[in-house]
Specification:
This protein is an alpha+beta fold. The chain contains four helices and 21 strands. It has three domains: 36-46 and 237-299, conserved putative lor/sdh protein from methanococcus maripaludis s2 fold (Beta Barrel); 50-58 and 155-235, Elongation Factor Tu (Ef-tu), domain 3 (Beta Barrel); 64-152, OB fold (Dihydrolipoamide Acetyltransferase, E2P) (Beta Barrel), CATH 2.40.50. The chain has helices at 2-32, 95-105, 109-118, 297-305, and strands at 36-40, 42-58, 61-64, 70-75, 82-83, 88-94, 122-125, 130-135, 142-143, 150-153, 156-163, 175-180, 183-195, 200-202, 205-214, 226-243, 248-250, 253-258, 266-275, 279-284, 291-295. A hairpin with a 2-residue loop joins strand 14 and strand 15.
Length: 323
């Protein structure tokens, strides 16, 4: 009896090992079997860009200081207002005129009028065409001739920080696109206006400042805003496109796994063009509407993570994808 029990024990151990080996083999097969997805060749636009960030700044920031020390009589402009060169921005009194007028007020309005006619106020005039971006003075305020009372900007530009590895692809008058962090849904067309000759080191990275000028400055753009800038390096309109993961490269030649009606899929050689890292241009080998097969990496990952024993209740066999 002991001998028979020992045989049954050995047989049970062998059966368990066999089951474990079969499960391991099944799991490996289920995991290694690729799952494919179908992708159609479509026409679209492809754009190769260099992305960076920058800050909205005045191209020329001009601080306006009064010609003499004194007191403000009247401010004629508001912050954000566009003015032309020669426009009177502020009327002011010198220190002496302000003192005389203050003394005349104690003698009545006629005396004030007489001194106002005899001692005319001094105008502060806009030196350039531009926008008043800062007003730091109000009527009745006193100041010295070393203090800035207004700040003007002729136009706003974006100072973009471009990595030195991308500088070879950025050119003067090149098209660009600006999207402000404050207005992510608004795209502003622009051009490269100026490229710095001297580099800056930012966090141990060598960069160059590139001035990007909006073709038309929107009303919502403000100095100091953070902007995302994309420089258009190259673009294609209405070309055949496929996701890059549909194309394989071997020995310098590129091909796809093309799905054929009523036939097995075939490896088809293709010639490719521009790519943005996500999509790739198809120059020859395929036509619009053709279907290719690509490994579905996401589904494959899910299949591996959900692989269970084939002997468990509710289990399914792996490898349901196309071959």
């Amino acid at each position: 009896m002991k001998m028979i029990g020992r045989k049954f024990l050995l047989w049970g151990i062998g059966a368990a090992l066999l089951l474990l080996g079969g499960y391991a083999l099944w799991r490996k097969t289920a995991q290694d079997q690729p799952t494919y997805k179908e992708v159609q060749v479509q026409r679209g636009d492809l754009s190769l860009t260099v992305l960076t960030t920058g800050t909205v700044q005045p191209e020329n920031r001009l601080e306006i200081k009064p010609p003499i020390a004194g007191r403000v009589d009247q401010v004629l402009i508001q912050e954000g207002e566009y003015v032309r060169k020669g426009t009177i921005l502020v009327w002011m009194s010198s220190t002496e005129r302000a003192a005389l007028l203050d003394a005349a007020r104690s003698q009545g309005p006629e005396e004030v009028k007489r001194w106002e006619d005899l001692y005319r106020p001094t105008p502060v005039i806009a030196p350039i065409n531009g926008t008043v971006i800062l007003r730091s003075v109000e009527a009745g305020q006193t100041f010295t001739n070393s203090e800035s009372i207004l700040v003007m900007s002729d136009r706003l530009t974006i100072k973009a920080q471009v990595d030195e590895t991308d500088m070879a692809q950025v050119k003067l008058k090149q098209k660009a696109e600006i999207i402000l962090d404050a207005y992510p849904g608004q795209s502003v067309p622009a051009v490269v206006d100026q490229i710095a000759f001297e580099a800056k080191n930012v966090n141990n990275v060598t960069t160059y400042v590139v001035d990007v000028l909006p073709l038309k400055t929107p009303d919502f753009m403000r100095s100091g805003m953070t902007a995302n800038v994309s420089f258009k390096i190259n673009e294609r309109k209405g070309v055949l496109l496929l996701p890059v993961d549909c194309v394989t490269t071997q020995d310098g030649k590129r091909s796809v796994l093309k799905k054929n009606p009523n036939e097995a899929p075939s490896i088809t050689a293709v010639e490719t063009g521009l790519t943005d890292g996500k999509n790739i241009e198809i120059l020859s080998g395929l036509t619009e509407g053709d279907t290719v097969l690509a490994i579905d990496a996401i589904q494959q990952l899910k299949s591996r993570s959900k692989a269970i024993s084939p002997f468990s209740p509710g289990s399914v066999r792996g490898g349901g994808g196309r071959r």
